[in-house]
Amino acid sequence: MDRRRTGWVALVAAVTALHLALLPAVWPVRLGEGAADPRRPERLQVSFVQTLQPSEPPTRRLQPVQAAPRRAAGAALERAEPAASAPAMEAPELPPLAELPPELTNPVPSLMPVEVDTVAASPAASAAVSTDATAFDWPPSTRLSYRVVGDVQGPVEGQARVEWLRQGLRYQVHLDLSVALLASRRISSDGLITPAGLAPRRYDEETRIVLREPRRVAIDFGDELVRMADGRVLPRPEGVQDSASQFVQMTWLFNARPDLLQPGQSVSFPLALPRRVDTWIYDILASEPVATPAGLLPAVHVRPRREAGGGDLTVEFWVAPSLQYLPVRLAIRQGRGITLELLLERLPEQAAPGR
Predict the structure, then answer these.
(1) What is the pLDDT of residues 223-278, one digit of tens each?
(2) CA 67-245-106 angle, 5° bins
């Protein structure tokens, strides 16, 4: 009996050591060059007091209108050309993002809306969406909890939590993910709610692996420029999102324009990753029921057109119209080494209305 117990202990130790050796290779800990600013925005404090129950989404009839002219700096990034190839400028001093800008009391001018591509390229269908996000009834602060299963050079399990936090016209999005008690990743977006949706001001990403120093990267968003993780400064395209804010931006878009959730349509916007700014396109696929511990939920499948590769994460997701178009399932891929599935563990928790 003691010999068997000793054998099991040795096996567990060997498997743990193997995971520790493999994780740095398959889960890159340095996603961008340069040290992140440690003065990240302080996390908003919110109390979640109620459970969001499935309900029929409200009917909205919003008319698309022609988009406003773009700024010259954003025009160079208009059509899926990687901004990383653009020459970097000398880094100017950007304002400290921990300090709230005056837009919190005076809404900023409308940014460029998300572009919408459709199969039927009628003038009305192909026009850019123009919706006053400050007038839109944004959902209160919301917490979603997920069960994680996947493959990181072997089966892994874990937990994930996504929090959408808002105070007035300021927002934060936080994703905390841990697998196998060996590694964790936290991504955060901090910014403003504007007439065109979310306008990020700061993006932070932190990866922790057992027995290794944590690695951090950050992106600063100025009014006209974006400072990348390696210190390069690029023009800020209109409507740019980051890896965390993009999903809430699409949730707002689907709430405002539920007709976009039809198979064959797509949405695109500039996305700031730690090493470059590029245009990403998401295709709308078929409706698929998703079986969750919270029950069987009708959902719409949304998938990025780009394949995983080059160190970038890709995330396809399923949004539930009955739960304010929140994602109830997500599939995260990074090259051939990481595949993680996030499945809603229980119904979302929310703060009191307006908080």
Answers:
(1) 999 999 889 999 999 999 999 999 999 999 998 888 899 999 999 999 998 888 99
(2) 60
The region of weakest confidence among 122-126, 158-162, 245-249 is 122-126
Q: What is the 3-state secondary structure (H, E, C) of the chain?
A: CHHHHHHHHHHHHHHHHHHHHHHHHHCCCCCCCCCCCCCCCCCCCCCCCEECCCCCCCCCCCCCCCCCCCCHHHHCCCCCCCHHHCCCECCCCCCCCCCCCHHHCCCCCCCCCCEEECCCCCHHHHCCCCCCCCCCCCCCCEEEEEEEEEEECCEEEEEEEEEEEEECCEEEEEEEEEECCCEEEEEEEEEEEECCEEEEEEEEEEEEECCCCCEEEEEEECCCEEECCCCCEEECCCCCEECCHHHHHHHHHHHHCHHHCCCCCEEEEEEEECCEEEEEEEEEEEEEEEEECCEEEEEEEEEECCCCECCEEEEEEEEEHHHCCEEEEEEEEECCCEEEEEEECCCCEECCCCC
The more confidently predicted of residues 267 and 310 is: 267
Asked whether the beta carbons of 230 and 36 are under 8 A apart, the reply is no
132-153 residue pLDDT tens: 555 567 889 999 999 999 887 7
Q: Using the structure block, give the residue that is written with the tokens 């996947």.
A: 150
CA dist 150 and 73 (Å) reads: 41
The string of pLDDT tens digits covering residues 60-93 is: 544 433 333 444 333 333 333 344 444 444 444 4
Q: How many CB atoms lie within 10 A of CB 249?
A: 24
Whole-angstrom Cα distance, residue 171 to residue 211? 33
The mean per-residue pLDDT over the stretch 8-16 comes to 34
Is residue 302 a contact partner of residue 250, using CB atoms and an 8 Å limit? Answer: yes
Q: Are 318 and 302 in contact (CB under 8 A)?
A: yes
